[in-house]
Structure formats: C-alpha cells, structure tokens
Amino acid sequence: xxxxxxxxxxxxxxxxxxxxxxxxxxxxxxxxxxxxxxxxxxxxxxxxxxxxxxxxxxxxxxxxxxxxxxxxxxxxxxxxxxxxxxxxxxxxxxxxxxxxxxxxxxxxxxxxxxxxxxxxxxxxx
Length: 125
Fold this sequence. Notes:
By secondary structure, the protein is an alpha+beta fold. It is 30% helix and 22% strand.
C-alpha cells in the first residue's frame, strides 16, 4: 500500500464559472478605466481560497501566459511605500497577454508570497 497525499477537493463548477466571469469583468475594467484589479478583489476569490493552483491555471490559460517560460516585458522593485513597510520590497514582473490592452502583474514580496493583478501596462502601484 503506497502513501497517498492529500486529495484536492472537487471545485464546484459554478464557482469556476463565476471566477471566469470575474476575470472577464476585470478585463473590461482595465480597458474602460485603465485601472488594475488584484485577484483577491474579485468576488469569487474567497470561494477559491485553498484552490490556488487551479485558480492560477485558469488565469494563465485565459491570458495565454506562462510565467515559467514567458519573459516579463517589465520588471521593477517597489520599495517606497509605508503600507509595504512590514513586508519589505516587492518584485514586480509584468507579462503581456493575448489581449494587447491587458497585462498580468506578478507581485512577489520578500517572504515569497505572490499576488496576481490584471492591469494596464502603466498605472499606479
């Protein structure tokens, strides 16, 4: 008998569809207002907490991005924010997507925690 790891619980298909709809809405928000939307601000985000791998797979598939093989079109460090004082510097990598008006931002803090944002190329951090 082999050792089995924890199984990933089945994700409700309705939650996945809500996430996909939220991604579409975030794209429209970027296009209309040239403003960013972090994944954690999407209404369906909380329903997918614990299923981050699946969430990122959907995100990467929708935007045709692979951060492991695709080169970031911009990289920079955020260092000058009092809000970020507790977590240190944040390394930002910006990836082009299959939509020329929409980009993905990968924000990695000094603890290695990664957040994703659907964003325009330029914008306030």
